[in-house]
Each structure stands twice: as structure tokens, then as C-alpha cells.
Amino acid sequence: MSRILVVLGIVLVITGLLWPWLGKLGLGRLPGDVVIEREGFRVYLPLMTSLVVSLVLSLLFWLLNR
Questions:
Q1: Phi/psi at 38 (nearest 5 deg)?
Q2: In which element (H, E) is residue 63 found?
Q3: Position 64 confidence tier, pLDDT thresholds 50, 70, 90
Q4: How far is the C-alpha of 2 from the C-alpha of 25, rounded, in Å?
Q5: 65 contacts 8 by C-beta, under 8 angstroms
Q6: Collapsing DSSP states into helix, strand and coil, what is residue 28?
Q7: What is the CA radius of gyration of the chain?
Q8: What is the pLDDT of residue 37?
């Protein structure tokens, strides 16, 4: 359990450091992300972005667990 937490912490730090470049990849603006804009409010549901991030993290953890 502690190994997973350490790896997760390292991934979060690396993601934070690389965020300016990761923002240029288009995550958060993929087809399949839903934006509902009405007068006075805005709802954003990043469905496709969540799916892509989930797949990448699953692959990463699978590779680290081997």
C-alpha cells in the first residue's frame, strides 16, 4: 500500500511540473466532453478526458505492478 502511495505522489508531482505542456495536449477539450452553458451558469462534464486519463493510469499501474 505504501508503494502505491509513493508512486501516486511521484506521478502527481510530475504532472504538476509538466502541467503547462500537458495543457497544450487538448485534455479537457476532447470530443465527448460536455459543456452546458446557460444564462448565469456553466456546467462542464469532462467525460472523454476522464476516460482517457483512467486508461493511461490503469496502464501505468499495470506496468508498475508487473
A1: -125, 170
A2: helix 47-65
A3: confident
A4: 31
A5: no
A6: coil
A7: 15
A8: 93
